[in-house]
Amino acid sequence: MIDATVLVIDDDDDILLSARLFLKQHFSQVITCKSPKEINVLLSRNEVDIILLDMNYQKGASDGREGIYWLEHILSIDKDYVVILMTAYGNVELAVQAIKKGATDFILKPWENEKLFATLSAASRLRQSNKKVKKLERIHSSLQKDINRQFENIVGNSEPIKHLQNTLIKVAPTDANVLILGENGTGKQVFAYELHKLSHRKNQIFMHVDLGSLNENLFESELFGYAKGAFTDAKDDKPGRFEMAEGGTIFLDEIGNLSMPLQAKLLSVIQNRTVNRLGESKERKINVRLITATNMPLNEMVSKGTFRQDLLFRINTVELLLPGLAQRGDDILLLAGHFLNTFSTKYHKSILDFEPKAEAMLLSYHWPGNVRELQHVVERAVIMSDSLKIGVNDLQLSPQKFGSSTPIQSDMGLEEMEKLMVQKAIDKHKGNISRAAADLGLTRAALYRRIEKFDL
After folding, report:
1. How large is the average pLDDT for residues 22-31?
2. What is the pLDDT of residues 404-447, one digit of tens each?
C-alpha cells in the first residue's frame, strides 16, 4: 500500500468506479469527482499527491483543450502538483503539448491496470521527491534567516575593527581565499559570514564546517560525499559539504587541527576545484568561495613540519588577524550594550543599562574568552538581575582574571575593586578562607589582613 492520495477527475461514472476499485487496493486514499469545477474545493480540503485528470468533458469533445485548461489551472495553484492526463483519443501531438504544459505523464483509456499502477507509482515517487525538495528549501530559507539574525553587523568602532572592516569591503566582492586568525571567541565565524554577506554569493548557502569536531575517519565522507556501497552503511549516494555549498561559501573552521594526510586531501580539492566522492572515480567540479580559520600559529606549524606550506599558500591569499577583546578599548561597552539589548528582548526583561561600577569592571577585566565570554557574562547577568541596571554582583566575573596592568577607566577606586573581589571570593567559596585565598592568589594570612582592613 502506497501512502498517497489520488484524485481522479472524469465525467464517466464507469471510469470513476473502475479507478476507485482498482486504485484503493494500492493507495491509501482515492478521491473521485465528475466535474473539474470541484477542483478548488477538493484541493483545499485534501492533501492530494497525484491528480488523474480526463482531457475531455463536454459531449463530443475530443481535442483535449479542456484538459489543458484545467492542467494549467491546477499548476497555477501549486506548480508542484503531479498531474497525469488521460483520454480515450490517442494523439502524440496532444501528449507532447500536455507534457510541455507541465503534465507528469499521459495515459490512454481504457488502461491496462499494470500500466496504470506503474505510472501512478512513479508519479508518487516524484511527488515525494518534490515534497522533500520543498521541505529542504524551507529549511534552508529558515536557516539563512536564523543566520542573518545571529550574525548581525560587526559591532565596534576601535581602530583594529575599522581596519578589518575596510579590508572586508575590499576582499568580499572577490573570490580570493581568506584565512582568519585569532584567539578563541574573537568572532571568526562572524567575520567569515560578513565576508559572505558582502559578496556576490550572498544569496547562496553559507556552509560552516567545524573541522575540530569532525572525526578523522569521517573527514572524506563528510566533506567530499560518498557513493552507494562505498562502505557498510552507505545505502544511498550522498553529496559532501563542498557539493552542498555549490555556488556559495564554505567556511572551514579550526583548519589547524587537520592531520598531514587530511591536509593533502584538502589541498588536492582546493587546487583542482573538483571532488571525488568515496567509492567512485568520477570527478565533480565545484564552485565555492573558501574561507578558513584557526587560533593556531600556522607559520610556526609550517616550520615544525606539522602544517603543509603549500596548503597555507593556497588558503591565505588574504589574511585577517582578529584582535582580542581586551585590545578593543571601548568596543567592550558597545558589545556589552548590544548583548544587553539582545538578551533583554529574548528574556522579556526591561534592563536599560549597566551601572558605572559594572562598566568599570567590564573594562578592567582581561577577557580571556574574548567576545564569546562577554556574551555569556551579559546573558547570565540579564537572567539573574532583578534591577533596571546591571550591577557588579550580576556580572559574576572571576577575580583572578583582573590584571593590575589594566587601567580602571571609571570612578571605581583600586581599594573598592579589591574589596569587591575579596568579598566575591569569600561568597563564592561560602566562607572557606583557604579556598578563597587560593582563588585570589593570596596566603591565608594576607587574606585575613584584607578581611580586617575592609571590615568584611
Report:
1. 93
2. 333 333 445 556 767 777 787 787 777 788 777 776 666 777 78
Phi, psi of 286 (to 5 degrees): -125, 145
Q: Tell me the torsion sign for CA atoms 155, 159, 163, 164.
A: negative
The three cell numbers locating residue 174:
572577490
Pairing of strands 274-276, 283-285: antiparallel
The secondary element (H helix, E strand) that includes residue 36 is none
Instruction: Give mean pLDDT, residues 299-312.
Output: 95
Q: Which residues pair with 31 in a beta bridge?
A: 7
Residue with cell 475531455: 56
DSSP 8-state code for residue 57 = -
Alpha carbon distance 262, 278 (integer Å): 14
Reduce the DSSP state of residue 38 to 3 states and report it.
Answer: helix
Starting at the edge strand found earlier in the chain, the sheet holding 2-9 runs: 27-33, 2-9, 50-54, 82-87, 105-108
Residue holding cell 521527491?
129
The number of beta carbons lying within 10 Å of the beta carbon of residue 20 is: 14
Higher pLDDT, 64 or 319: 319
Residue with cell 473539474: 36
Beta strands in 165-248 (DSSP E): 178-181, 206-210, 225-226, 238-239
Instruction: Give the per-residue pLDDT at 101.
Output: 87
